[in-house]
Amino acid sequence: MKRREGLAAWMAGGLVAVTGVFAALPVTPAVSAVAPPGTPPVRTISYNVCGAYAEKCRSEMSLTAWTDGLRGHVSDWDADVVMLQEVCKGQYDGLRQALPGYTGVWTGTQTADGCGKWGDDKSFGQALLVRAPQSEVSGMSTELTPPGFTGEKRSVVCAKAPVDGRAVLACGTHLRRDDAAQNDTPALMARIEAWANGLPVVLAGDFNARPAYAHMDPVYAGRPGTLSLAEADGTDPQYFTAACKAAGATECRTGEPTLVDNETGTKYVSKFDFTFFSRQDFRDLRSETLETGFTKVKDHLMVRSAASFQTRTPVDGDLTGDGVPDLLAVQDDGSVRLYPGLGNGRFAPHRVIGTSGFAGADVSHRGDWTGDGREDVVARIGDELWVYPNTGLGSLGERIPMGERPKGWAHATVLAVGDVDADGQPDLVGRSVNGLYLHRGTVGTNPALPREVVVLGGPEWKPADLPEILAPGDVDRDGRADLWARAADGQLRQYLSRGAQVLPAPTALGSAPRDAHPLAGTVGDANGDRRADLLLTTAPQGDGTGNLTFLPGDATGTGFGPAATIGEGGWRWIHSVR
Questions:
Q1: Residue pair 60/296 in contact by the 8 Å Cβ criterion
Q2: H-type alpha helices, 248-307
Q3: Other CB atoms within 10 A of residue 118 CB
Q4: Residue 403 pairs with which residues in a beta bridge?
Q5: Residue-wise pLDDT tens digits, 267-285
Q6: pTM score, two decimals?
Q7: Which of these, 129, 227, 352, 439, is most buried using a 10 Å CB contact count?
């Protein structure tokens, strides 16, 4: 629903009272442009400011008044991300100074004499501002127009940054208004997919195309299997087409007009400005338009959008998002294989999710380290400790050094085990010749381990005596992750967590001699019976290359049922199964 403000009501950059309601929220009159109660927390503004074209629409306000006015809109909406198109460098610089809590990303595709109104720098392009410290923002931009194109260059500008506590790729764009190359949208989607690499995506801007145009097909279609976008006002029925209404659709390629009719200059008839959110990451999508009165004639409306993050409850061991624990195996060539769990104690054929660089590494997965509701992968590689965010599809995102303790791990065995102390945060255990230690994790866009550690056990945990540590999850269902270990003589031991204190004496779970079973591992409950299960590899026999066997946890919690072969051949080349 549209809100309108008149230019005459702006006094020295002050805000004007308006009336209206926010689409899909309670119908109550609004006395200002402030976000109504109940507005979802992730909020964006997209606006084509027409900063350079004096004869068409450029604002007649002073830079100070214009900056103060836009700052007021950002404040009223409590915007996390602001995307500006057709903005001059002077406007961008002024706004950055007016919004000290925001980090900006700028891309100037050309110069325009009309930008001289705002300062000496006549650069003209796009800007993105995100409410986050500069140290946590990674900006990027690229041109989308093909080589040899002689018109105005078009581009996309993005930032990887924390938004409402989660890492997000936020992007603004301004595309061409012609039929060539589908209006640059194929190149746009390919670039965003590559940069996002599984991160939640917010995309907004002036697409210079109506929703039904073929130009928009690549955006609405997304990237199969990796990136699906939903339009912020695509479920607002008051703008549905007749065909969508007749079909009883709940989502429609439509939306509120944002652009003035070029001939009459008085009526908003076209929708060229859009906001999209990645469908798998967001819910409660909302959008509205707002007439700011900034331009001397009507041009683009401001688009204010909002959404909530999807809520997820991670399942221990699940990397693919289907609620079933999965298996990670490190091969001796340094690659990492993902075997998706089938829920019956077996696994689907593997796919390689790390091609190299993991030789000799400790690779494990228990716990959501980035706060997005997905279990992540932790790897000690040489002396360094890394978090590999889960993209939600079982592939690995761009790795993040473990905060506060990124180095100093060369002589430690590291295992992500889940939440040992029941504080709602994932934890690691690290083992050296001196003992076993609990490293209590901190979730966030920059996950971290504090310097302080908790001693869980002494020299009896040295590698020579307990070569393997396993993470079965919460075995006794008291809310704390427990541990298994296999001793040098093959004895399997269970250690029930006491939280952030020394582990009690173990109980025996049986025996699996290492000469017959080179590797032991667990993904927790692999067959859905709420009991942790055991995986063992078998030593090669004759011309064989070793198998993988599955041993279901028994009803007593003190042993395992008969072994079943679930992977034939090839397991002698595997370095670890977790």
A1: yes
A2: none
A3: 24
A4: 448
A5: 788 899 999 999 989 999 9
A6: 0.79
A7: 129
